[in-house]
Amino acid sequence: MLVTIQLFLWLAAGFALALMIAFFVMPKQERSRLVRSVPLEQRLKDYPQSAQAVIIRANKKLSLLKEMPWVVTLSLFSAYTFWFRKLEAPQCVEVLGQNAITIQLLLVCYGLPLAVLTWSLLYVRTGLKTLKTGYYPPLDEKRFADTIATRGWLSTIRGIAILLMPLFSVATLYFGNSAYAALTDTIDWQKVKVTCSAEPMNPAAQ
Asked: Is 54 within a domain?
């Protein structure tokens, strides 16, 4: 599991660095929203005329429906991970005919990267619209809360970043595949059978 932990530490560090960079390159008008509560209409007045800022009104119902598959997926993954961590001997537990350790590795190394890849592909349309219209988020985007859409170089960078996300996801999937192969090679399944021989592997339902 050490390789998996290191992989996710690197991913977390990269994500944190990206957030820091995004914060410092963010226009002052948007940065103020993160550090103090400012009415949307007041923030709109603070944008320069070149930003052509407009307010996108919230559509909570459609926004929730759009994000619901990801909420369910992450909830199931989190629930399985929590249950897995509570097991005293996960190598002796079967889930759907597979070893619980194998299922956990598949979820971490393939499940999450594939989920991110699917999510990024669904947002390609948003990236294309951003580059076409210059607005981020696009004016027809369904948002959970009222949001200010602006034009400018930062919106263009955001559109490009969205279009590059599938490539990042494919790279993550590649590293996940390498990590899975390395981790499964370190498991001595014969030793696992001997360890669990005194107490046969029990289905997860029991």
From this structure: yes
In sequence order, the β-bridge partners of residue 203 are 94
Q: Name the pTM for this structure.
A: 0.66
Picking from 121, 156, 119, 126, the residue whose alpha carbon sits closest to that of residue 140 is: 126
DSSP string of the chain, one letter each residue? -HHHHHHHHHHHHHHHHHHHHHHHHS-HHHHHHHHS---HHHHHHHS-GGG--EEEPP-HHHHHHHHHHHHHHHHHHHHHHHHHHH-S-GGGEEETTEEHHHHHHHIIIIIHHHHHHHHHHHTHHHHHHHHHH-EES-TT---SS-EEEEESHHHHHHHHHHHHHHHHHHHHHHHHHHHHHHHHHH--HHHHHHHHSSSPPEETT-
* Phi, psi of 134, rounded to the nearest 5 degrees: 85, -10
- Which domain does 109 fall in, by range? 2-188
Q: Which residue bears the tokens 């192969």?
A: 181
If you average pLDDT over each of 57-66, 108-117, 125-134, which comes out highest?
Answer: 125-134
Q: Cα–Cα distance between 139 and 46 in angstroms, integer?
A: 19
Domain count, the chain: 1
Residue 152 within a domain: yes
Query: pLDDT digits over 139-179, tens only?
Result: 888 888 888 888 988 889 989 999 999 998 898 888 888 88
Conformation bin of residue 96: beta by default, left when phi > 0, alpha when psi is -120 to 50:
left
Domain for residue 193, yes or no?
no
Q: Is residue 42 part of a domain?
A: yes
